[in-house]
Specification:
The strands form three sheets. The protein has a six-stranded antiparallel sheet with strand order 1-2-3-4-6-5, sandwiched between helices. Strand 8 and strand 9 (233-236) form a beta hairpin. The chain has helices at residues 3-7, 22-32, 80-92, 107-110, 135-153, 171-184, 193-204, 247-255, 281-292, 300-324, 332-336, 339-350; strands at residues 11-12, 41-45, 53-57, 62-67, 100-104, 114-118, 213-215, 224-226, 233-236, 243-245. It is an alpha+beta fold. Helix 5 crosses helix 9 (281-292), helix 6 (171-184) packs parallel to helix 10 (300-324) and helix 7 packs antiparallel against helix 10 (300-324). The chain contains twelve helices and ten strands.
């Protein structure tokens, strides 16, 4: 089973407006990617809400290409060069990530910057309840997911060349400012009273806890590839939102699957009959704290509300790109409408709904 293809729910012929010159790309890969040998066939993954993502097939192997989208881009968004950098550094630190073969910062090759990475084989679980496996395997899958994130947060960024990958202070304040600004600066996608109240509450309740780690920014079960037959993570995908930041905010952003409706992204909120083997939230939090040497997470509720704000802001951006016709995914219009529900959940968790 092809993990990367599963992650993006399969492939489709390249959609109109997202074409790639296969000859130009093939010539570039022949010069830049060790072992590359054509001919080259290109398909587009159905997912990839932000950066268009393609499967590249040759007679000998398959690759994945991630590129910047076309059209108007918000400042700092879609930085594929950052993705390539963090993947390469974390591979050296033995964190499970796809191998990056090459990065291209020349728009003349295919019309935008891009990078080529390995297509990792394995399993993707789209549903947070992980159906179709035994209770024992389900428990081990959650344990591996938890352990892998703790291992990421225990890495010293400076020791792997990522000491300058982001600022090391005021992470929450900077994230609030960044996503609030993108929300306000995208009038095409509209405003929402719940989002406005949530932003105001977060600004008034920022925790004082310090800490810096490499944070993924979107660590959830359907962004992970698991071994084809074993219950362990073999690759973490989608590093576009990664930076240096607060590990507790990153963990809470992951643990919102306990509060996330499954029709938005992989979540357990409202799911009837959650199967045995899924840990209760308190135990899952405790396992992460044990692995990272913490007694607990005093401001956990704040971090959860903050995580819903952040995701709402991301979906607000998807909504704006869909309305402008520049979204990478054909499902972007439908996905963008979830912005309103995410903002409402975040406001509810903050007590300002």
């Amino acid at each position: 089973m092809s993990g990367a293809a599963d992650h993006f729910a399969g492939t489709t012929p390249v959609r109109a407006g997202f074409e790639i010159d296969a000859d130009a790309l093939g010539h570039w890969m022949a010069d830049q990617v060790d072992g590359f040998a054509g001919p080259l066939t290109i398909d587009q993954f159905r997912g990839g809400q932000s950066n268009p993502t393609y499967r590249l097939t040759t007679p000998g192997r398959r690759y994945v290409l991630r590129r910047k989208p076309m059209g108007m881009l918000l400042k700092g968004a879609h930085a594929v060069e950052r993705e390539a950098r963090v993947l390469s550094a974390l591979e050296r630190a033995a964190i499970p990530v796809p191998h990056v073969f090459a990065l291209c910062t020349d728009d003349k090759v295919i019309g935008s910057w891009f990078y080529i990475m390995d297509m990792v084989e394995g399993r993707i679980f789209w549903e947070a309840a992980v159906p179709g496996v035994s209770t024992q395997e389900r428990a081990a899958i959650f344990d591996s997911m938890n352990e892998t994130m703790a291992r990421l947060h225990n890495v010293d960024p400076a020791a792997i060349g990522l000491g300058d990958y982001g600022k090391t202070d005021r992470y929450i304040e900077r994230q609030l400012a960044r996503w609030s600004r993108q929300y306000v600066d995208d009038p095409d996608a509209g405003r929402d009273p719940s989002m406005d109240r949530l932003i105001a509450w977060l600004e008034d309740n920022i925790p004082t806890a310090a800490g810096t780690a490499v944070v993924h920014g979107d660590y959830r079960i359907d962004n992970l590839i698991f071994h084809p037959t074993e219950p362990r993570v073999v690759a973490i995908l989608d590093w576009e939102l990664s930076t240096l930041g607060h590990p507790l905010a990153d963990f809470a952003n992951h643990a919102i699957f306990y509060h996330m409706p499954p029709h938005i992204v992989a979540g357990l909120a409202g799911v009837k009959g959650v199967p045995d083997g899924v840990p209760v939230e308190a135990d899952y939090v405790a396992a992460y704290c044990r692995r990272t040497g913490r007694a607990g997470i005093p401001d956990y509720d704040f971090y959860l509300a903050f995580s819903f704000f952040r995701m709402a802001a991301i979906f607000h951006g998807i909504r704006g790109r869909a309305l402008r016709g520049t979204a990478a995914s054909a499902q972007a219009a439908e996905r963008g409408e979830h912005f309103f529900e995410l903002a409402q959940i975040g406001a509810r968790m903050a007590g300002v709904a």
